[in-house]
Amino acid sequence: MKQAQKLLNEQFDEMVATLQKTVGFNTEKGEPLPNAPFGTNVRQCLDYVLELARSFGLQTYDCDGYAGHADLAGTGKDVLGILGHLDVVPAKSEEWQYPPFGGEIHDGKLYGRGTMDDKGPMIACLFAVKALKESGFVPQKTVRLIFGCDEESGMQCVEHYFCKMPYPTVSFSPDGDFPVINREKGIYQFDVVCGKLPHGVKIFAGERANVVPSACRAESPVLLNTEGVSRTENNGVYVYTSTGKSAHGSTPDEGINATHVLLKALAEAYPENETLGFVANKVCDTSGKAWGIDLCDSQSGRLTCNLGVLRTAENGTLTATVDIRFPVTYSCKYMHDLLRANTPQQFELNEAHVSEPLHVPCDSPLVTTLMDVYNSMMGTQLDPLAIGGGTYSRCLPNCVAFGPLFPNEEQTIHMPNEAISLNNLRTMASLYLEAIYRLAK
User: Fold this and answer.
1) Which pLDDT does position 391 carry in this prediction?
2) Residues facing 256 on adjacent strands
């Protein structure tokens, strides 16, 4: 192990350069093409990472461009899976201090979309496996690095991959928080197809259900009571633009939802419109209490509600895309029934992406091993975590999230200026090396 850690430290600059190269691929979901189901850029990034793994002496597999893996072969039949992703959520360059796909280093941080979610930790794991291999380590379990390409947009990648490949025996995903996340709230993303807006009113915002929208645009033939919102007039129509702060949809209160101020102003101007009243007064409450869906349990805490997308159809109908994270002791069916009971019957509820909660017991060998790795190396006495975010861990049995976000570290995932500290990158790579060694030996 000492030799492997020494090699890992010696190769740190190479790891950083590799991450910069990987960040340079804009892996936002693109138009599907043959053998590139999520677009050309994602395909090229997967090719680059698999070719790099082959150059390290690992055995690789390309699953039709949906995902790929790199193996360090073991002596037994069991497999240790390390499941991460190469795709990223959209990045608006005008909101960034540094180019989102530039991979620039400033003040000890490497900036770029995907540096934390999830390219940085997966490159750290790749180099940890490289160091273990070069040190002469021969695992009992095959170590399998699985690179998905559609985690942010529905996880079609792993659905396709695991139709062709067996589940690993035991796994972790470097796509959450340290020390260990063994409980993940259920995910219920859906469209609420509401009624029509008042004549001449339109509103648009957001791109993804799981991102707090940082901008919203509305049109209205009447003057609205707004403050801090830009306004222009075009042929008797007022055009409003509100700005907020992006955040991950599982933690909506860490952002500022740009839709809220305009929806509430519109609802005030048109008090008789049921659609505006419902969305402004019910859906904008991030706790779900106003909607009558405020669930809570002792294992994972309270429900959260993010209004991620607003679209106005040509006929004036408003569709709101909502992302709800519900506590681990409830189910998707319970969530659906509760929503249906508290939503006007004439409004449609159309499921988009739903996922049952994850709960791996605290005393499982997987959780206790990873907790011991973290607490021993970091000199802490922390306990496993519950989160609202949804990681790959819920896509396969016996899997938990392990890093990359350290306790009390600034959260930049899904936000402008996403960045990874170079010191933290070095530390997490060492943690991953130790974890892989102990789980695979």
Assistant:
1) 79
2) 245
Query: How many domains does the structure of the chain reveal?
Result: 2
User: From CA 105, how far away is CA 118, in angstroms rounded?
Assistant: 18
Query: Domain holding 260: CATH number?
Result: 3.30.70.360
Residues 212 and 168 in one domain: no
Q: Which of 87, 175, 184, 323 is catalytic?
A: 87
Catalytically annotated residue among 118, 151, 175, 177 = 151
Q: Which residues pair with 186 in a beta bridge?
A: 326
* CA–CA separation, 323 and 212 (whole Å): 10
Question: How many CA atoms lie less than 13 Å away from 27 in the CB half-sphere?
Answer: 34
Is residue 362 domain-shared with residue 338, that is, in the same domain? Answer: no
Look up 177 and say whether it is catalytic.
Answer: no
Residue that terminates a domain, selected from 308, 325, 355: 355
Q: Identify the domain boundary among 330, 355, 380.
A: 355
Question: Nearest-CA neighbor of 320 among 216, 225, 222, 184?
Answer: 216
Q: How many residues comprise the chain?
A: 441
What pTM, to 2 d.p., does this model score?
0.77
Residues 147 and 199 in one domain: no
pLDDT tens digit sequence for 309-352: 999 999 999 999 999 999 999 999 999 999 999 999 999 999 99
332 and 366, same domain (yes or no): no
| Residues 122 and 207 grouped into a single domain | no
Position 426 confidence tier, pLDDT thresholds 50, 70, 90:
very high
d(CA 144, CA 132): 13
Residue numbers of the domain that contains 21: 2-185+358-440
Annotation says 272 is catalytic: no
- Residue 264 and residue 280 in one domain: yes
Q: Are residues 426 and 277 in the same domain?
A: no
Question: What percentage of the chain reaches a pLDDT higher than 70?
Answer: 100
C-beta separation of 154 from 65 below 8 A: no
